[in-house]
Amino acid sequence: MTPDARSPANPQKNRRGLDRLWHATGYSLQGLRAAWGETAFRQEAVAALVLLPASLWLGQGWVEVALLAGSVLIVLIVELLNSGIETAIDRFGGEWHPLSKRAKDLGSAAVLLALLLAGAIWAAALAHRFFT
Length: 132
Known about the structure:
82% helix, mainly alpha, 132 residues, flat
């Protein structure tokens, strides 16, 4: 086997140290820019701009702040993963296929569960703050 045959097709795999970190950060920022083009991610990101500072006000101690802020970030993370799944499925074409639908539905269900989790955490914190 020649050296070229063993080298990975992705040049990122050959990078090490700070060079790899630098490029990986750039790819992550490109992903966030791409996600901004998704309506659902934009809506959740705008909500996060309000909710993250609010978690500092509402949370009574670092654990509550971490739960409130973390639940908001989990929604964004799951939305990014869902968008990635949808993009990968869409790469194969626009024709309807039951497995493509299933993959997209599963990603959507994950976002729903993340939203329900965040909503429950915020509701519990608000109830604790104002009704106890």
